[in-house]
Structures are given as structure tokens and as C-alpha cells.
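Per reviewer request, we include the raw input and output of the structure prediction for the construct analysed in the revised manuscript.
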Amino acid sequence: MTPETIRQLIEQGLPGARAEVRGDDGVHFEATVVAEAFRGKLPLARHRLVYATLGGRMGGEIHALALKTLTPEEAARSP
């Protein structure tokens, strides 16, 4: 699995989301996801939304995914 494939899956599954995905070994990844859908949601709920876009790939093709989830406003304030 490539970071680009994961980015596409997340962005297709969360309309309007922007994702940046990194990972060098093909199974461990880090992603920053910015989405309006995160507004008013706690981090666990945000992560579940992202995991839902990846379905059964989590724990299989994707061994680990470290997430940073932000609303557009949070992203604008982030350095």
C-alpha cells in the first residue's frame, strides 16, 4: 500500500477532506487529515471517521496509522 493510495481513500471517503500521508515501509503510516466533518467531534470520533474510509485494510495492509485530525480552522492556526 502506498501513501498516495491511502490519501486517495481518505479523501474519497470524507468529501472535502485534505490528507497528507507519509510512510516509508509500506505498512506503517502517518497522516494529517483536515476535514469539516471533524467539527464538534472528539479525537476518537475523528479517528473512527478516518478508519472507516480505509475499511478492512486497517490491521491488514495497513499495520499502523498515526493520525493528526484537524478542522480547517484548527489547521489554519497550526504552525
